[in-house]
Amino acid sequence: MYLFSSIFGVFVFDEKFNVVEEALFSSLEEYRNKSDIIENLKDKHKITQELNENALKTILLYFKNNKFFSEFYDKNLQLTKSDLKNSVGDDTLLIRATNSVEELDKSINFLSKRLREWYELYNPEFSISVQSHEKFVEEILEKEKEELLKELMINVADSIGADLSQEDLEPIRNLAHQIYDLYQLRKGTLDYMSVLMEALCPNIKAVCGTIVGAKLIEHAGSLRRLSEMPASTIQILGAEQALFRHMKTGAKPPRHGVIVHHQLIAKAPDRLHGKIARALADKISIASKVDYFQGKFIGDKLRQKLEEKFDMLTK
Amino acid sequence: MYLFSSIFGVFVFDEKFNVVEEALFSSLEEYRNKSDIIENLKDKHKITQELNENALKTILLYFKNNKFFSEFYDKNLQLTKSDLKNSVGDDTLLIRATNSVEELDKSINFLSKRLREWYELYNPEFSISVQSHEKFVEEILEKEKEELLKELMINVADSIGADLSQEDLEPIRNLAHQIYDLYQLRKGTLDYMSVLMEALCPNIKAVCGTIVGAKLIEHAGSLRRLSEMPASTIQILGAEQALFRHMKTGAKPPRHGVIVHHQLIAKAPDRLHGKIARALADKISIASKVDYFQGKFIGDKLRQKLEEKFDMLTK
User: Fold this and answer.
1) CA distance A209 to B145
2) Per-residue pLDDT of chain B (315 residues; tens, 9 = 90+)
3) Are A174 and B185 in contact (CB < 8 Å)?
4) 3-state secondary structure of B295
5) ipTM value
6) Who among B110, B114, B121 is closest to A92 (CB)?
7) Hey, what domains does chain A have and what are their CATH numbers?
8) Chain-centre distance of CA A39, in angstroms?
9) Which residues of A touch B (CB under 8 A)?
10) Counting beta carbons within 10 angstroms of the beta carbon of residue A114, is it exposed (0 to 12), middle (13 to 18) or buried (19 or more)?
């Protein structure tokens, strides 16, 4: 007796290769849970024998029958489609959201520069006094030129900005509004990413924060691939260009990739960047493994250890 | 008798260089209209003599007096500020608006690509079926996945897109909304530019349309500079890179710069591009001169001649 299973169902053949029993799959779910059916039939017919090459060849001849062909194509298509459908995990969504935030950052930056150039015809003194684009946009939407200049202790009459009519100011304000909305969308998307990460990778999130964590997963391609990477790779993820330059020309190797934006590194003095990056990558490597295998939450402890180490280094 | 005018006022000196009469300017306006005052005083004192070098030296010594110094500084500052204020003409505003539209185009393009990547996890079949980003954004905001697939005669169950929850769809929709708003802002800014150009350069607008006309003025730097350019320069404005490549390496010279986006060139067969570009640049050169010197409107005639020529060429 032989047992053979394909995408159609599970078949039991006798020694002469006649079908003794068949259990056809009526849906993809049954196909996915075929192991139960296989076990049942194995028990029922007391099959212990594995298929040998000759038996397999004869059995496959049984399926070389036109009646199976179109069904075979259909079922495989269904299966592929369903696999594709289900391949969209939380990390895919997280990566798309991260890409979107990166693109929003670029757009906000470039549009803000254009807005400043435009607005500076009207009120250059204020534009120069504010570094942050976000604050700049908020203030010019909220306040009039007089107020803004008053805060800088400048008399409106002394401003070198031109007096623009309301019609000329309107398109400038509209652009500022749009940039303000882009900032809001960025914040909303970050909130969404934060929720996704709470479920998908709470440990990475605790160690890295939302943006750095999401960028690491984006660069790795998926949570699984990140969890398989050694700490040394995680450390320079996103600094591939510098790495290849190092390998080709012998220039200094990069000390950090996307983790350079991590709070601990960003606020540390330059000479400690390498050390902290190594310790940080180490903890991220642990966190990603725990997250991928859905272990219990240890992110807070990892983070705490890092901060202690950092305190020690800076003392 | 000598007459000398400076930023302070107009002074009349006798042969011994004593001040006989002085008319101090009380405001910048008076300084700007000083020619009247000068004429009056010249008539009154019957001054015909021009200042010679020796006389000028002696007179300047009179102003080498501390009491004039701070006033001199203040008045010059006032004058410079006022000139800066008034240097913002309609063409400056037009250039800023054009820059903004160019940046909006880039942002819309990049964000739309990100939106598509993200949305394609959910409904790839629809995204692939629509070329235009604008139409894509509008449709996914208006209709549900079922409707969109129905129009493509695809059953929802057959879609290879994942079934996303409302929470996962929301940030995608928000991004689409934002891009929709960017399109609206772009349209609004173009309307504003159109109004500006109606007053500033109606002839250029009639010959080139809003965008191409505005980009020409932007590349030239101002309407004045555009009006001073020969037609051959206008023809390749915006193709500087190709021009320098031609000069350096002997590669083909560029046939057109920003005017390549002009309707007449865009819809013409490639072999005619050079000819039409030359004719078009010719008319733009005329239009810009008429606009700068605020001559009467001939834009419609110029445009008509171009179209006749174009019809002849394509026949």
Assistant:
1) 34
2) 888 888 888 888 888 888 888 888 888 888 888 888 888 888 888 887 778 888 888 888 888 877 778 888 888 888 888 888 888 888 899 999 999 999 999 999 999 999 999 999 999 999 999 999 999 999 999 999 999 999 998 888 888 888 899 999 999 999 999 999 999 999 999 999 999 999 999 999 999 999 999 999 999 999 999 999 999 999 999 888 888 899 899 888 888 889 999 988 888 888 888 899 999 999 999 999 999 999 999 999 999 999 888 887 776
3) yes
4) coil
5) 0.82
6) B121
7) 2-86 (no CATH), 90-192 (1.10.287.4070), 201-314 (1.10.246.90)
8) 40
9) 81, 84-88, 92-93, 96-97, 99-100, 103-104, 106-107, 110-111, 114-115, 117-118, 121, 158-164, 167-168, 170-171, 174-175, 178, 181-182, 185, 188-189, 192, 195
10) buried
Residue carrying the six token digits 């070198």? A160
Residues of A within 8 A of B192 (CB-CB) are 167, 170-171
What is the pTM (predicted TM-score) of this model? 0.83
* Tokens 């008509």 -> residue: B304
